[in-house]
Amino acid sequence: MVQASAISLPAPASAIPLREILPWAIFAFAIAFVAMYLVGFEEGAWTVVNSNVVHEFVHDARHLAGLPCH
Question: pTM of the entire structure?
Answer without folding.
Answer: 0.59
